[in-house]
UniProtKB/TrEMBL annotation:
Pfam family membership, one: HemolysinCabind
Molecular function as annotated in GO: calcium ion binding
Residues making up the signal peptide according to the UniProt record: none
GO cellular component: extracellular region
Top-level division of the source organism's lineage: Bacteria
Family annotation (InterPro entries): Hemolysn_Ca-bd (IPR001343), RTX_toxin/Mannuronan_C5-epim (IPR050557), Serralysin-like_metalloprot_C (IPR011049)
Protein name: Calcium-binding protein
Length: 158
């Protein structure tokens, strides 16, 4: 499904869905299945649902929920440089102890870079982890209700 520009609402079904919000403030819900959801530019809300889902906000102030899954489901929250200077993602339900993973993509959008952990810094603030672009005050993401100790083993740099 493609939302293009505008404020779109998209709902997946029982299969494996791919949904692209495009420009605008979108609401994307995966439903059942292993879904891939991309918000695009704008302030998006993305909800995975049941299954192993991929959630990509894409800039703006986004809210990402992995959704209901089992201990065998593995949600992937993908964060890159698209938030630098233009918002951040808030991840509401990261459960590293039940297979969720947090993917941080390379700093430049047009190349894939391996092992670029030095581009981000992690800060514990109350019960949340703030992920910043190193050397700036720009936030990439807030991972709610988790400690850095719980998060660090579930970060994949690509």
């Amino acid at each position: 499904m493609y939302g293009y520009s505008g404020h779109d609402s998209m709902y997946g079904g029982y299969g494996n869905d791919s949904m692209y919000g495009g420009y605008g403030n979108d609401y994307i819900s995966g439903g059942h299945g292993n879904d891939s959801m991309y918000g695009g530019a704008g302030n998006d809300t993305i909800i995975g649902g049941k299954g192993s889902d991929v959630l990509v906000g894409g800039g703006g102030y986004d809210i990402l929920y992995g959704g209901k899954g089992s201990n065998t489901d593995r949600d992937k929250f993908v964060i890159g440089s698209e938030y630098k200077g233009s918002g951040y993602a808030t991840i509401k339900d990261f459960f590293g102890h039940v297979n969720d993973h947090f993917h941080i993509v390379g700093h430049e959008l047009d190349t894939i870079q391996l092992g670029k952990s030095d581009r981000y810094s992690f800060h514990q603030q109350n019960g949340d982890v703030i992920i910043k672009y190193r050397g700036t005050n720009d936030w990439a993401a807030v991972v709610e209700n988790v400690t850095y100790a719980e998060l660090k083993d579930n970060i994949v740099y690509v």
